[in-house]
Amino acid sequence: MAIKILQGFGAGFVVSIVLGYLFGAFGLIFNPIGPILLMCLTYLIAGWIAGYSNEHPYITAWLATTSLFFVNMFITYNVLGDPDISLLGIIFSWIFGQLGAWIGKATTKVY
Fold first, then answer.
1. How far apart, in Å, are the Cα atoms of 83 and each of 7, 21, 24, 79?
2. Could you give the CA distance from residue 54 to residue 88 in angstroms, rounded to a whole number?
3. What is the distance between the alpha carbons of residues 102 and 87, in angstroms, rounded to a whole number?
4. Which of 48, 26, 30 is nearest to 102 (CA)?
């Protein structure tokens, strides 16, 4: 279970960094849809990877997205200096993480 949490965390972190750079390069980060799309894709992918081929997909996705949220907030605070940690942000990270876990569970081959 710990391996799947770390895989989901790592996948979400890489997606967050890559899409953040791409959205910044194309100027989408200043558009209101940019940060929302970045958050949705980051936590959806993290939940999907954490929930794929796992006995407890929802718990692992929850732990992966929660840890990813706090690491992203730590980086945001240190880079941008914005101390606003939104309760709405963590709730949406849980929702998209659970949706990703559901997708991961649905796409797992059952033997």
1. 28, 21, 21, 11
2. 28
3. 23
4. 48
30 is written with which tokens?
């200043």
Question: Which residues have CB under 8 Å from 98's CB, separation 6+?
Answer: 47, 58, 61, 62
From the list 57, 35, 32, the residue with the least C-alpha distance to 46 is 57
Q: What one-character DSSP code corresponds to residue 28?
A: G
**How many other β-carbons are positioned within 10 Å of the β-carbon of residue 28?**
16
Per-residue pLDDT tens digits of the chain, which is 111 residues long: 889 999 999 999 999 999 989 998 998 888 888 888 988 999 999 999 999 988 899 999 999 999 999 998 888 788 777 666 678 888 999 999 999 999 999 998 765
Rg (CA), the chain: 14
On whether the CB atoms of residues 43 and 70 are closer than 8 A, the answer is: no
User: Which two tokens mark 54?
Assistant: 């796992």
Overall pTM > 0.90: no
